[in-house]
Amino acid sequence: MKSTSPVWHPFTQHAVQPEATLIARGEGAWLETADGRRIFDAISSWWVVTHGHRHPHIVRAIKDQADRLDQVIFAGFTHAPAEQLARRLVAITPPELDYVFFSDSGSTSVEVALKMALGFWRHRGENRSRILALQDAYHGDTIGGMSVGERGVFNAPYDPLLFQVDRLPFPSADHEQATLDALQTACRNGGVAALIAEPLILGAGGMLIYPPWVLAEMKRICQAHGVLFIADEVMTGWGRTGTLFACEQAGITPDIACYSKGLTGGSLPLAVTLCRADIFDAHYSTDRTRTFFHSSSYTANPIACAAALANLEIWDTEPVMERITRLASWHATRLDRFRDDRRFKNVRQIGTIAALDVVAGDAGYMANIGPSLHQSFRERGLLVRPLGNTIYLMPPYCSSEADLDLVYDAIGEIADGIG
Ligand SMILES: *Cc1c(COP(=O)(O)O)cnc(C)c1O
Predict the structure, then answer these.
(1) 392 belongs to an annotated ligand binding site
(2) Whole-number Cα distances in Å, 253 to 32, 192, 231, 321, 385
(3) Angle at Cα 71 formed by Cα 272 and Cα 8, nearest 5°?
(4) Was 30 annotated as part of a binding site?
(5) Which of 9, 10, 236, 343 is the most buried (most CB within 10 A)?
(6) How far is the CA of 41 from the centre of ligand 1 (A)?
(7) Dist CA 194 CA 256 (whole Å)
(8) What is the DSSP code (8-state) at residue 51?
(9) How far apart are CA 108 and CA 114, in angstroms?
(10) Upper half-sphere CA count for residue 147 (Cβ side, 13 Å)
(11) What separation in Å is there between the alpha carbon of 61 and the centre of ligand 1?
């Protein structure tokens, strides 16, 4: 039956999915429905909530900022929260990422990165415009983001609008060299502006993990050919993979990096694209046609920037990294029981993210089992939203061991139900 609500939800097939659950409150790792049921947020409300819902320090910062300055045009004007945040970001991100461009979402941070790369080469007078991307990549749902992302059911209708990219095979275990070889070949062919990649784990593409040495090699090959390396850390940033940023594990500095999701601790939409000075400098000119022509109305919204600053203060003042390490070890001990379970395969983990594939029927995002898995978790008061037959967990860092037990026990029970 058609809902009476006029709301069209994202990634939702209204004809087959149950009515949306009405959420009234959130606290820590838990949500509460309007009728008082509690739900464990095992995927951090689509990967954004890091310290838990309504962290008091972030809530206070939002209230204080709202009392002073809500919004101001960001061209020709600036404000303290953005200035302070930019300085802090330059200090904590990999070295030499010296300039910060603000936008509103992960997708827009990727669009900005692609435009920076193309602008860089054009203003340098070099004919480089091809983009390289990984198979199974996800970089957002705007036209540029879809173009560099994996093609398939998600974007087939829009294919005529998408630009061509050169696709590198995913560096799966024991096939890493094929990826590196393909990268070498593409770089040698010339005309390549940039490689964009999610460092260490491809998120929406199925929680596919690859090792730091491959990331380091990709960066090295790019550098040898003058190809810009864009790290899309929209999901991996803010501790998700066990370090503040995933690139740290490979000891690399990307030329351009995108951060969003956990940037405000999951409280407000905000994104940044950081770049090296030479990319800024290529646009720096008395020739006004070299301006970086990009903006969104709410660029660097002061309240969102204040929330992001409060997030960084939490990283400074609370044992966030210890929570992450603890969460990672809780995952590890609980995942073990599924390693020899023939109903699952590809049991895997990186930092606070755990994933496993259900062996039942078809695989991939459109796997028939996906919606019923989602529903089974829902009935148990758990927010888990499998990517097809891939069950993954990405809880807030404040989750307790008992919270995790609830969800791991549910995985076992649901698998029993599948038989
Ligand atoms: C979520 C995500 C995006 C898109 O971010 P939005 O805020 O949803 O636009 C881009 N890249 C990666 C790697 C993501 O996980």
Answers:
(1) no
(2) 41, 19, 9, 21, 32
(3) 70
(4) no
(5) 236
(6) 19
(7) 10
(8) S
(9) 10
(10) 17
(11) 25
H/E stretch holding 411: helix 401-418
pLDDT in tens, 238-269: 999 999 999 999 999 999 999 999 999 999 99
Name the segment(s) of the chain with CATH classification 3.40.640.10.
56-315
DSSP codes, 173-231: TT-HHHHHHHHHHHHHH--EEEEEE-SSEETTTT-EE--HHHHHHHHHHHHHTT-EEEE
SS3 32: strand
Contact between 307 and 268 under an 8 Å Cβ cutoff? The reply is yes
pTM: 0.98
Choose the residue to mutate in 139, 234, 245, 256 for probing ligand 1, maximizing ligand atoms within 8 Å of C-beta: 234
Which residues is 134 bridged to in the sheet?
Answer: 168
| pLDDT level of residue 198 (50, 70, 90 thresholds) | very high
pLDDT of residue 343: 93
Domain 318-415 is classified in which CATH homologous superfamily? Aspartate Aminotransferase, domain 1 (3.90.1150.10)
Rounded to whole angstroms, how far apart are CA atoms 331 and 207? Answer: 15
Q: How far is the CA of 139 from the centre of ligand 1 (A)?
A: 6
**CATH class of the 56-315 domain in this structure:** alpha beta
How far is 113 from 273, CA to CA, in rounded Å? 6
CA distance 397 to 260: 17
- Atom 6 of ligand 1, nearest CA residue: 106
Residue intervals in the chain for CATH 3.90.1150.10: 318-415
Q: Does 295 belong to an annotated binding site? A: yes
Residue 358, beta-bridge partner list: 344
Q: Give me the mean pLDDT over the 122-128 stretch.
A: 97
Distance from Cα 289 to the centre of ligand 1, integer Å = 30
Contact by Cβ (8 Å): 353, 240: yes
